[in-house]
Write a structure and sequence with these properties.
Tachylectin-2, Chain A, mainly beta, five-stranded antiparallel beta sheet, 3 helices
Length: 429
């Protein structure tokens, strides 16, 4: 059966009970793979400073507030992006609102701009969408499935129930050595759940192939099916981050054990041009790359003070691998307020940290004390000597039993990405 719409109550219960935003990190020594920078060229990096970058958020606000169409994006989370060969940028969103935006006040009298469906009532919520941005930085159109009268997710729900959430995407040759390029999108395949699995139980990782330049969905291929693991807590979803290095893509992922304070991080690598080829995937088992996903070992192990979120991001800076995450192992509510970092000289680790802290601004809203920050994502295609562009998502985490729907579904200041410019610097010895 299809996943039900997210309501205030389910959001509150989910974000309070499910460690979907958590993955924990620990040291695991491993030699650097071929193609990565040598350890001699690697130095520790930390979060040194940051500033708000209002430009991208304002561009999405203008686009989302435009009511000339009612089947386009007015809000979404799970923010990822990929630069296309012609200079456009493809933005990928998980749960997405498609509807109208109205000026204040809303029906409950709160003084914020609010969204509703074209027919009134609860806004349309779909499992995923894509937004195409022009080379000049203007969002221009929303890509969904279905029809204009009944838009559905761009990446269709799997047969038999469940849904797909897009995570990282990349442009690569259709096949190794080919001059034809395609977009490959990593997707989290989830099935309905209850209790700690309110966001769905993990089923596996798929890869979608999109043609260029028309962005037509050509195929959906399972690459790391985890359904054989009877315990959903032992299933690893890949694609929260992807970094190209040499002739391979390094794909990071995590598990979601609901009984733990945080998750563990895992790593796979795939030759360039073969991301949609399941036979080409190799998983790090703690000492070797091997084809059995079930034998993968954490490169970032849960436990203690150290921790990263399942929606973390990885980038390269001056030859060093840098991982940015919600500080899920921090004290108090740091996991839904504060971003921290880790660094390593190879994707397998050892990972050092946490180092540095960012507490990004949150919208005021009608109840600012319950607004959560999550899903930090790097967008290196927008980085040109001004610091790494980092997005983060915001949502409302009211007390259990509160009437959440008017806030999360209505307030357009929520469920839209915000952006920072982050500057990294050497770790002080």
């Amino acid at each position: 059966m299809p996943r039900p719409p997210i309501t205030r109550t389910t959001l509150v219960a989910a974000l309070l009970a499910l460690p979907v935003l958590t993955v924990t990190a620990a040291l695991l020594a491993a030699p650097p793979p071929r193609g990565t920078d040598s350890r001699a060229a690697c130095t520790g990096r930390t979060l040194a400073s940051w500033s708000v970058d209002p430009g991208p958020a304002a561009a999405f606000a203008r686009y989302g507030d435009d009511n000339s169409r009612t089947d386009d994006w007015t809000g979404g989370d799970g923010t990822h992006s990929v630069r296309l060969p012609d200079g456009r940028t493809l933005w990928l969103f998980s749960d997405t609102f498609l509807d109208r935006v109205h000026p204040a006040p809303n029906p409950q009298g709160a003084p914020y701009r609010w969204r509703t469906a074209d027919t009134g009532g609860t806004p349309f919520l779909r499992h995923n969408s894509l937004v195409v941005m022009s080379p000049s930085g203007t969002p221009e159109r929303t890509l969904t499935g279905g029809s204009p009268a009944a838009p559905g997710p761009f990446f269709p729900d799997p047969p038999g129930g469940g849904w797909r959430w897009p995570v990282h995407a990349t442009v690569e040759p259709r096949t190794p050595g080919s001059t034809e390029q395609v977009v490959r999108v990593l997707l989290w395949n989830r099935v309905p759940g209850a209790g700690p699995w309110i966001f769905g139980a993990p089923r596996g990782t798929d890869v979608a192939t999109l043609s260029l330049p028309d962005l037509r969905l050509e195929s959906l291929t399972p690459v790391a099916d985890q359904s054989a693991a009877t315990d959903p807590a032992r299933r690893v979803l890949y694609g929260t981050a992807l970094v190209r290095d040499g002739d391979h893509a390094y794909v990071f992922g995590g598990d979601n054990p609901p009984s733990a304070a945080a998750d563990s991080g895992y790593l796979a690598r795939v030759p360039t041009g073969r991301l949609a080829d399941r036979a080409a995937w190799r998983f790090w088992d703690g000492g070797h790359w091997q084809p059995d996903a079930g034998r993968a070992a954490p490169v970032l192990r849960a436990g203690g003070r150290r921790g990263v979120g399942s929606a973390f991001t990885v980038a390269r800076d001056h030859g060093t691998w840098v991982l940015l995450t919600m500080d899920t192992a921090g004290r108090g509510g740091a996991g839904l307020r504060t971003i921290t970092g880790y660094w390593s000289c190879s994707p397998q680790g050892p990972w050092h940290g946490p180092v540095g802290r960012i507490t990004p601004p949150r919208p005021a809203g009608p109840d600012p004390g319950h607004i959560a920050v999550y899903n930090p994502q790097a967008h290196p295609e927008f980085t040109a000597g001004t610091g790494l562009l980092l997005s983060y998502d915001v949502n409302w985490l009211g007390p259990p039993g509160a009437a959440a729907d008017p806030v999360v579904n209505g307030d357009v200041e929520l469920y839209r990405p915000r952006f920072l410019r982050v500057r990294l610097a050497p770790v002080r010895r």
